[in-house]
Amino acid sequence: MLLNYIINGLPYIPDSWVHIAHSETLLRTGYLFGPSPNPSMVSYNYQWPTVNLLLTLSQSVLDLKPLQSFYIVNILASLSILPFISFTRRLTGSNTVTLITGLLFAVTSVKLLVDVSVMKETAAQYPFYAYILATYMALMDNKHFRQNLVVVVLSFIAILFAHHFTLLMALAYSFIMAITILVSNYLNGNNTKHGLYLLVTVIILGLLTYYWYTDYLRAFSVTGFVTPGLISTPILIALLLIDYVAMRRGSRIVIYTVLTLIAITLIAMFSLGKFLPYVLEGFNKAVVLSSIPYILPILLATLYLTLYGFRKPVITMLTIISLAILLYVLLMGNNPMELLFLSKSLDFIMPFLLIPTALIITVMLRRRPSISAIAYLLTAILLISLPLFTLLTLFTYSLPTSSTLTVYRIIDYDEFKAINNLIPSNTTLYASISYNPMIRFMSGINSSDPTIYLLHGESPPGLLILTERNVRVGFLYGSGYSMVSIPSNYLLNTLANDDLLYSSRTLWAYTQP
């Protein structure tokens, strides 16, 4: 989890700078929600105060400097592997499956990139998996039902204060688990009382969440994305997947084989840049590197459904809802915001797909030597490929990714500090939108986006800060989810007649003469 600090010395997510500034407000005012005791009167990033609170406590209790307090949030997020592997062990009853699942969880890029950052999602990691574990234990452990139910409610409240999208995923997965175990117990003639109690509890928590968001927080912009399509389409896809699982095994194998061959063909064409998929705007090396490693766990998880159907109902249903969410997000459309939803969704669905993946590998390990060798090879491929995007992002400092994956380096931070006194009070500062949060944190100045001027061959009418990464990779513009690559010769020719106020190996400051 500390890898990015070792390499670059700073967090990589733009929101980190916002939250560290908010933590200073919490320290100054003493209010949980920052500038006001009323959460409905504060801005978006104050309404989920957990990450701000953790940063504040790290500074006040542990006497850490603001940037050092990031370590505490990262370490707490990395500990989410503990409730996750405990959940996997209770779900599968196998130490081998738990070990493989835990190893894959620990190296999956989408988890690493969330855990090494400091944002609302980071603070929600541990309570989310604690909630999933407590929900499963409440459903399965009759002797300690009340104690587990208390943990369910407390961990849910922790997520409520941490992050809204995580809360939606928690409700979805806990509802699916409760329904699955309730139906399974009913069909097998077992006691359904605790399942009903838990299901009612989840429904009540969902209703309280809706009331909290709409009537108290008045966070209409947050609840606005919870559309009928967001709820109904994954359910319809899940029902189709359930029909597939309910088929005879031979039929499932034929369907799986055909769809896998088609998928592999499409993936190969996409990787070679032969066509542009519906969900993506243009061929992008970074998207390939970030998405292709997930294909193998998805195929193995679907293979588990093909071979074993409803043998383990909870694992089957968790796999089905995860695949349904993935398919829904892929079919949503082709704008950059929906690509962001894809990355956020992968953060939640991939861990649950790793469980059937590990089950398939474990079954292969117990077969004849040739099959066992394939299992070892699959595990090695997964352990190498799953963290590849994170490692390349952090080490190369060059992948053209969105603002949610901007890598900051300590050298950039120091360089920006060095030119603070060069910024006239009456001028407009221009910089790539991805650097705006760091600049605002250091100087209180909101920088403007220069890309419109630069694309038209004009220098912006103010002070332009240009980094080595801007020259080599490009700029982020607009909403921060799109990349504009401007040829370096064209860019430098555009600025050739401007005055160069500051120059170093990694940063330049230009102004019009």
From TrEMBL:
<feature type="transmembrane region" description="Helical">
    <location>
        <begin position="286"/>
        <end position="307"/>
    </location>
</feature>
<keyword id="KW-0472">Membrane</keyword>
<protein>
    <recommendedName>
        <fullName>Glycosyltransferase RgtA/B/C/D-like domain-containing protein</fullName>
    </recommendedName>
</protein>
<feature type="transmembrane region" description="Helical">
    <location>
        <begin position="254"/>
        <end position="280"/>
    </location>
</feature>
<feature type="transmembrane region" description="Helical">
    <location>
        <begin position="171"/>
        <end position="188"/>
    </location>
</feature>
<feature type="transmembrane region" description="Helical">
    <location>
        <begin position="97"/>
        <end position="114"/>
    </location>
</feature>
<feature type="transmembrane region" description="Helical">
    <location>
        <begin position="195"/>
        <end position="213"/>
    </location>
</feature>
<feature type="transmembrane region" description="Helical">
    <location>
        <begin position="348"/>
        <end position="366"/>
    </location>
</feature>
<feature type="transmembrane region" description="Helical">
    <location>
        <begin position="373"/>
        <end position="397"/>
    </location>
</feature>
<feature type="transmembrane region" description="Helical">
    <location>
        <begin position="149"/>
        <end position="165"/>
    </location>
</feature>
<feature type="transmembrane region" description="Helical">
    <location>
        <begin position="314"/>
        <end position="333"/>
    </location>
</feature>
<feature type="transmembrane region" description="Helical">
    <location>
        <begin position="67"/>
        <end position="85"/>
    </location>
</feature>
<feature type="transmembrane region" description="Helical">
    <location>
        <begin position="219"/>
        <end position="242"/>
    </location>
</feature>
<keyword id="KW-0812">Transmembrane</keyword>
<keyword id="KW-1133">Transmembrane helix</keyword>
